[in-house]
Amino acid sequence: MSESDGKPGHKLSPADSRAVMLAFFRALGADARLPASAEQPDAYSALVRAILSSVAVSTSPAPRVSCTITVSHAVTNLYNTLHGGAVAAVAEAVGMACARAAAGDREMFLGELSTAYLVAARCNVIFF
């Protein structure tokens, strides 16, 4: 890498910039192989179900879906709080459960999901 690395006002060359970015992704483990269980067709659903501590669906008198999430280290970010992607994945799963509870078990998809974060959920804390 060049001598200007990290100095204010100096730009990295494209090759140096690429090397820094690759080192960053490798440090995160981006080049690690996924376990065989991640290659299964329903791996994403199993991952989201593992985040949920409990889910309850009732249909009388009106459809209702509730869930509990326990924030474990498996779904935390560098700040030791619940990862935003995990929040969105759970919101999508619960949203689909609500739609199916109201409309029946039909084929459907969630067209768009927007998530706003108000406060961080700390590790080993249960939220309802």
From TrEMBL:
Pfam families: 4HBT. SUPFAM superfamilies: Thioesterase/thiol ester dehydrase-isomerase. Residues 79-123 form the Thioesterase domain. GO terms for molecular function: fatty acyl-CoA hydrolase activity. InterPro entries: ACOT13 (IPR039298), HotDog_dom_sf (IPR029069), Thioestr_dom (IPR006683). Belongs to the thioesterase PaaI family. This is Thioesterase domain-containing protein. It comes from Miscanthus lutarioriparius. The lineage of its organism: Eukaryota, Viridiplantae, Streptophyta, Embryophyta, Tracheophyta.
